[in-house]
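anyone else get weird line breaks when pasting these?? whatever heres mine. first is seq + tokens for prot A
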Amino acid sequence: MRVLIVEDDREIAHFVQRGLKESGHSAEVASNGDTGLEMGLSGVFDVLIVDRMLPGRDGLSVIQTLRAAGIRVPVLILSALGEVDDRVKGLKAGGDDYLTKPFALTELLARIEALGRRVSPDEAATRYTVGDLVLDRLTHKVMRAGEPIALQPREFRLLEYLMRNAGQVVTRTMLLENVWDYHFDPQTNVIDVHVSRLRGKIDKGFARPLLHTVRGAGYMIRDGAA
């Protein structure tokens, strides 16, 4: 993917740029809002990383102007402002995701890759397959090795998100925001409980597990042993 980093902190910008390049992505840097807007309007980037507090035009203004111009590229807002109100303002301005500083590079990369895989509703897949596990979004049916699996609505949504990101680490924060629509951590074990129930339904009784816990990072669904 081609990523634009709009960040005035040179150290952070180069840190993120290096991490993206080492992960196989192309990354360019704009050090202020006006340059970031100009580069973003080119429409050549797959994902934008935009700091909220920038010299000149601020990050939210950059995003709002891009959206007004019809640029629908996914945007990850990167900011030291981490209160719920700050996150809400960023998302309402047109951001697709919000990550607060300081951050873990592994999580930033996971979020960027998830954003890069986003497609419009008309283009979205109607069926996901991982090994012998099949999820049909239209019929809301799940089957493994030809056997039907009954899931509760939240379990279905959780499995759909995991399968849509198959082979990639999905963090707790990503699950909270994309499955539970929380843009803050409620400090509960709700994710652990649902993942445990889901694992019991899709893995128990089958020869190999598909749903894996990645220690210290999150979860991953993939075909193969952990």
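and prot B, same format (seq, then tokens)
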Amino acid sequence: MPFVYRFTYLFALFSCVTLSASIAQTVVSDVVTLKNGWILRGTLLPARPDSSVVIDTRDGNRFVFSRAEVQTVGRDTPRTKGYGLYVELGPLAARNTTAQAVTTAAITFHIINGFRFSRGFYAGFGTGVDLYATQTFVPLFASVRGDLSGGSRQSSLARPGLARPGLTRPGPIPFYFLDGGYGLNATVNNTPGLRYIGGAYTSAGLGIRFPFSRNSSFLLSGGYYLQQSIIEQPDGRTRESADFNRVAIRAGFTF
């Protein structure tokens, strides 16, 4: 399959996966916690002259509370523990070419499933497809990643008269990632006796995530990418090793 067709197919798959997952996410809500223990989620409205708090809840009701009744006003706090999914797509940039003067451009598409233990530590297992101009790999790898900073999404009602008193919104959050495993070589071979063999895979770098709902973020990252491979000649004794060293530039989503 020509490289451009493989890229088009991969991009369409990426779009379908991310769109389906994003639709399933819960929209970020404002949260009002009352001193009597009630918790209401919805959309805060501009504060009234008497500093009362007004919220339209998800079921379409509107509630008005005096300042004395309200304990805190904030937003839904993203979970710090639980299942997490990463979907990433991007080019693997390089200048080198093959002996046949074919530029070894590549595109990578990875899906990672795992568990988020805290904001700073997520561990999971991933797979996907890495499409080079001359070879195709299916990596199987472990992934470790996490936020490098983060803060509370809940604050007290401290500034009366504001449209959303004491409310803070999450901004861009830097994160790290480290992946390592083995890339299965799935290159189509039409030469009898010629074998394409996979090798070690690793990737590491930094990125920024942009939260857009309670537990979802858009991702941009960059880093180092290495895929090793071996080509065994028809004589069965001669082997040629190749290291695909790349600068990975990826975009994606986490849910």
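btw re prot B: The chain has one helix and 15 strands. The radius of gyration is 24 Å.
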